[in-house]
Amino acid sequence: MSENTENTETEAEEAQVPAEQAGHEEHEPTLEDFKPTMPGNINPEVLQNIVVNLSIEVGRAEIKIKDLMRLTQGSVVELDRIAGEPLDLLVNNSVVAQGEIVLVNDRYGVRLTRVVPSSERLKLV
To answer: What's the order of all strands across the beta sheet hosting 107-115?
Structure first.
């Protein structure tokens, strides 16, 4: 064998040193690793930085595909809500409040008129 080949084999053997010997213990994660240390011990800062999807639902409509294909600019789709009826505010597709449309600096906004109690929301989950 040449000297170059011997050096390459030695380097390969050194690279195969188990992680425990290199000062790093390998640990296969278990369910215990993901359980909170104490029930209810959640860091509020972590919760406050979670991003959720918020949407306002004006209404819904169910139409046949043939009618959908006929829609053009200027078409009107009738929704299931009566004018003036509260809109639903949804967080991750769950209704958490209801409100009415308002204008805020030339933008639409929603003034909350009812907040669904958390006990009701938990039943829906």
So the answer is: 54-57, 87-91, 94-104, 107-115
Q: Cα-Cα-Cα-Cα dihedral of 86, 92, 96, 100, to 10°?
A: -30
Whether the CB-CB separation of 111 and 100 falls below 8 Å is answered with yes
**Model confidence, pTM:** 0.56
How deeply is 64 buried, as exposed, middle or buried, from its count of CB atoms within 10 A (0-12, 13-18, 19+)?
A: exposed
Domains of the chain: 54-124 (2.30.330.10)
Mind listing the pLDDT tens digit for each residue in 29-74?
A: 666 655 655 556 777 777 788 888 999 999 999 999 999 999 999 9
**Residue 26 to residues 19, 29, 64: CA-CA distances in angstroms?**
6, 9, 57
- pLDDT per position as a tens digit, 6-20: 554 555 555 555 544
Q: How far is CA 58 from CA 20, 81, 99, in A?
A: 59, 7, 10
Beta strands in the chain (DSSP E): 54-57, 87-91, 94-104, 107-115
Q: Which residues contact 81 (CB under 8 A, 6 or more apart)?
A: 58, 59, 87
